[in-house]
């Protein structure tokens, strides 16, 4: 339990350095296995976000090109 608390405090300190004023997200860091599960969860979430970002970028590019081709109102 003490290791988990130390790991959470370390994570929170690093989070605050990167994102001042933002509360650190709650993560299970009490064991190597728990950290591996968190890592996999974060990777899955990152893949979903990257996909959503790619979709939005595509839509923006498409709409900008379509508007550039459109006759003036």
TrEMBL record:
SUPFAM superfamilies with a match to the protein in the record: Bcr-Abl oncoprotein oligomerization domain (SSF69036)
Swiss-Prot/TrEMBL GO biological process terms: signal transduction
GO function term, MF aspect, one: protein serine/threonine kinase activity
Classification via InterPro entries: Bcr-Abl_oncoprot_oligo, Bcr-Abl_oncoprot_oligo_sf
Entry coiled-coil feature ranges: 32-59
Keywords for this protein: Coiled coil
Keyword Phosphoprotein: no
Gene3D superfamilies: Bcr-Abl oncoprotein oligomerisation domain
Domain Bcr-Abl oncoprotein oligomerisation: 9-69
Protein name: BCR protein
Species for this entry: Urocolius indicus (Red-faced mousebird)
Organism taxonomic ancestry: Eukaryota, Metazoa, Chordata, Craniata, Vertebrata
């Amino acid at each position: 339990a003490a290791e988990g608390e130390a790991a959470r405090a370390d994570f929170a300190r690093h989070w605050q350095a990167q994102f001042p004023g933002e509360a650190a997200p709650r993560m299970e860091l009490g064991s190597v296995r728990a950290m591996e599960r968190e890592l996999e969860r974060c990777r899955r979430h990152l893949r979903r976000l990257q996909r959503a970002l790619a979709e939005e970028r595509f839509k923006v590019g498409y709409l900008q090109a379509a508007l550039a081709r459109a006759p003036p109102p």
